[in-house]
């Protein structure tokens, strides 16, 4: 059955069938060939139960928040401000890519939206200033992955929903690893551009007065982050309510900068509908597939297989890491989460690991999947914003950052407190 599901998944994805539809088709296939009773009769119940949680309302709000910031021009102002502060480092404007992605990750909750935002704003600058296209575009793709780690994160909301774990605790746990990855990306960029200066283009130093004025354009994003995350941790709002507050804050910021118009609102709402519909289709399809797989006994088969290996807890978690790395090459990130969590997480908890800690480890591995071919979504998003070159350049440029994420995954395994210290301290 595992072979059927894996082969069927790869074959259907190769036909460019939407991921959500692929999950439904695989579920019907498992029902047809591996069960003795018609599970598909429960489809209506499954669709309702997997989409009726109030927690999921946060998803369209966070998507809308990012859409408003992008389409109102706030992203362009933020990028220009960070350019004036970090372009003196070895690598120049490449650091602005990572820094801008980090700031927008703290508001948008989506990696693809973050990568698309920064790519749209940054690519014209790369071509004008003569930057190496590989490292420049790779930094954008990698920086965009921070959108699902730094709170608020749509993927962490989905993980908390599926595992019935605390979303505020997950947000806290993701903060230090997320900021740590951002600093590591900056360090890797500086090291590479020190060894090979031609990769980084010209370093630029701006007048102090201009740098001070640029801070004005950073203040709204910082206030918005404090508003969203602070309201959750102070107990003033749930993640869903905080997302709604964030949308209101984003609209006020856009209004203050003169970026609100009927066209902007229309495009923001349409973009939100498209992205949210895609996410919900994947969640519902994966829930149906998980139901059929569980009924057909896949969970028991996989559990027996892993237990039969006789691994220690650390050996077990290393196998899980390997599974996610391999699956990440072929499966879209949200689908990978929703399909594997009901099977993998119970086994991880049985080995004595913390559910919050594993959520952060999984997100790091999911981040890697966003910049590894052939299904790395951020690679295609960044390539789509370029006017020349090929996808191989983006892949090559993202490789150093992918290795950095792998190092972070091993650091989390060796030192779990990287993720668990902040939730424990604030509790």
From TrEMBL:
Family affiliation: Belongs to the TRAP transporter large permease family.
Protein name according to UniProt: TRAP transporter large permease protein
Membrane topology qualifier: Multi-pass membrane protein
Subunit note: The complex comprises the extracytoplasmic solute receptor protein and the two transmembrane proteins.
Alphabetically ordered keywords of this record: Cell inner membrane, Cell membrane, Membrane, Transmembrane, Transmembrane helix, Transport
Function recorded in the entry: Part of the tripartite ATP-independent periplasmic (TRAP) transport system.
Primary residence: membrane
Entries under InterPro entries matching the protein: DctM (IPR010656), TRAP_DctM (IPR004681)
Keyword Mitochondrion on entry: no
An annotated Gene Ontology molecular function: transmembrane transporter activity
Annotated TM spans: 7-28, 48-70, 135-158, 170-193, 214-236, 242-263, 275-293, 305-327, 334-350, 356-382, 394-415
A GO cellular component annotation in the UniProt record: plasma membrane
Domain TRAP C4-dicarboxylate transport system permease DctM subunit: 8-417
Organism: Pelagimonas phthalicica
Cellular location(s): Cell inner membrane
Origin superkingdom: Bacteria
One Pfam short name: DctM
């Amino acid at each position: 059955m595992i072979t059927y599901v894996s082969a069927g998944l790869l074959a259907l994805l190769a036909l460019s069938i939407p991921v959500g539809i692929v999950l439904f088709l695989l579920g019907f296939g498992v029902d047809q060939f591996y069960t003795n009773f018609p599970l598909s009769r429960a489809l209506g119940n499954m669709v309702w139960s997997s989409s009726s949680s109030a927690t999921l309302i946060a998803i369209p709000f966070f998507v809308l928040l990012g859409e408003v910031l992008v389409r109102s021009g706030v992203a362009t102002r933020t990028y220009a401000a960070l350019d004036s502060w970090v372009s003196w480092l070895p690598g120049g404007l490449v650091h602005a890519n990572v820094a801008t992605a980090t700031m927008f990750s703290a508001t948008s909750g989506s990696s693809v939206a973050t990568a698309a935002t920064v790519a749209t704003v940054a690519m014209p600058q790369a071509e004008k200033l003569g930057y190496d296209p590989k490292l420049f575009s790779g930094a954008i793709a990698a920086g965009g992955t921070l959108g699902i780690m730094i709170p608020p994160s749509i993927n962490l909301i989905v993980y908390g929903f599926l595992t019935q774990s605390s979303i505020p605790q997950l947000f806290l746990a993701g903060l230090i690893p997320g900021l740590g990855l951002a600093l590591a990306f900056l360090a890797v960029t500086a090291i590479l551009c020190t060894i090979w200066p031609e990769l980084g283009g010209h370093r630029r130093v701006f007048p102090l007065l201009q740098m001070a004025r640029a801070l004005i354009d950073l203040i709204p994003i910082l206030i918005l982050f404090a508003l969203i995350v602070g309201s959750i941790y102070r107990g003033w709002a749930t993640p869903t309510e905080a997302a709604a507050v964030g949308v209101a804050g984003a609209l006020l910021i856009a209004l203050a900068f003169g970026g609100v118009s009927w066209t902007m609102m229309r495009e923001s709402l349409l973009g939100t509908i498209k992205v949210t519909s895609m996410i919900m289709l994947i969640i519902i399809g994966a829930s149906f597939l998980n139901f059929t797989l569980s009924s057909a006994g896949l969970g028991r088969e996989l559990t027996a297989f892993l237990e039969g290996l006789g691994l220690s807890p650390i050996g077990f978690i290393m196998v899980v890491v390997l599974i996610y790395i391999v699956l990440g090459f072929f499966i879209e990130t949200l689908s990978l989460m929703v399909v594997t969590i009901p099977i993998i997480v119970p086994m991880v908890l049985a080995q004595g690991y913390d559910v919050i800690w594993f959520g952060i480890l999984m997100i790091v591995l999911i981040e890697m999947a966003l910049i590894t071919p052939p299904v790395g979504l951020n690679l295609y998003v960044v390539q789509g914003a370029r006017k020349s070159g090929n996808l191989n350049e983006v892949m090559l440029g993202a490789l150093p950052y992918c290795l950095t994420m792998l190092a972070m995954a091993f650091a989390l395994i060796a030192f779990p407190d990287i993720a668990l210290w902040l939730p424990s301290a604030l509790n």
